[in-house]
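Typical record was shown:
=====
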Amino acid sequence: MPDLTAQADPKRWKALIFIALAQLMVVLDATIVNIALPSAQADLGISDGNRQWVITAYALAFGGLLLFGGRISDLWGRKRTFVTGLIGFAAASAIGGAAVNTGMLLGARALQGAFGALLAPAALSLLAVLFTEAQERAKAFGVFGAIAGAGGGFGLILGGLFTEYLNWRWTFFVNIPFAVVAAFGAIATIHEPEGSRNSSKLDIPGVILATLGLVSLVYGFTRAESDGWTAGGTIGLFVAAAVLLLVFLVVEKKVKAPLLPLRVVTNRNRGGVYVSLALAAIAMFGLFLFLTYYLQVVRQYSPVKTGLAFLPMIAMMITGSTQIGARLMNRVPARWLMGPGFLLAAVGMTLLTQIDLDTSYAKVVLPGLLLMGLGMGTAFMPAMSLATFGVQARDAGVASAMVNTSQQVGGAIGTALLNTIAASATTDYFKSHMAGATSQKLLTFKSMVHGYSTAVWWAAGILTLSALVALVFVNANQGQPAGGAQGDGEGESVDAVPVMAH
């Protein structure tokens, strides 16, 4: 395979704009619909039982098909996969915005998830093969990391604005201009390095096992939230997921051209990154949910005001990613950005456990969000880069898919686990304080806040664990390749220069 650094694409910085735009659209879509959901439910007459499927249909298709999407981009070509994903995502969004009944909306959400699973790994792997020089890679991943981290918050803001001033349907239609601009831009500017495509055949048994296993796992956590952890259906899904994923690993060891070459995940640095990102996603997704409910239900903020309340966190995420992570990535070992970054975010979360019925936004919520944003931005930046660093060019798509998979599965776990913890703490508080309560409504609110606070304590603990994983397992040091090609078997790696070198 040729030396990829010798063929730096002159249009790569323009390409970054369109890759980042597509990534923003995918991340944004994970949260933008949440705020619009009550309006869509009333408009289309969606039952309470089916309401969660508007979120779940997207999560299942996206999480279940990510590895498949990543491998398709390696085999079929990243640019082609990227553009196909964009066009499909735009079409699915148009169907969702025009939905006239529950089935049409749920089908559109599943289609969005499926095309998102093509799009997200292709975007990240394009960055991995287009930017191979250490300094350039740091800047490119700084932009990408900032967008990946802040997109969820932007989704909350846009969701609030559209729902309040336009219509819930615009939370779907907004994707169309994003996708069209990114697709035309990608066609004009992206040129994949020659020899970076994988010529193997597609591992069909691997695709079936991985997709069914991941869908069972994500759906298991969704069912745990609604039916309880000990329900027969929930346990059955977890058992099915464990069996399917174990069989998948056995198959991947034996087939000639595996869907997920195990060298991608057994590398110590990448394995550490995937686990720490999954743990961080558990904490972050849970927190977004509780803080949104706290501000809207307890503090009576409007959807727009709720979205704007998250703006300072987004600003600090972008600052942490572009000004700290990107500047220090080539000077400081990744663990010393990821570990302290996640710890700083955990301190911010600990502040947010102090919320009460009349907590001051400026004194408690704002400092907590600022610390979280700065910490997450600083940690996300090297994590995104290290996840694809040193991997062979022909495996860049599937390595990128693992980043998205760890975040998606982490998000599903976080929503279910922390929701269950919050609900249990709320019920216990209500029962134990019922006797002396002067106002039922006041006690209900106090119980809710106690539940949120308890769940946020757990989230802070999980984020601390994420920092420890990064400090222990991510061992890429200054001047030393961060799990370079030598650890991945034969063949040229995506990077000819160590990202962690001075």
Q: What stands out?
A: The chain is about 75% helix and 0% strand. Confidence is low (pLDDT under 50) at residues 1-6, 477-502. Residues 203-256 form one domain.
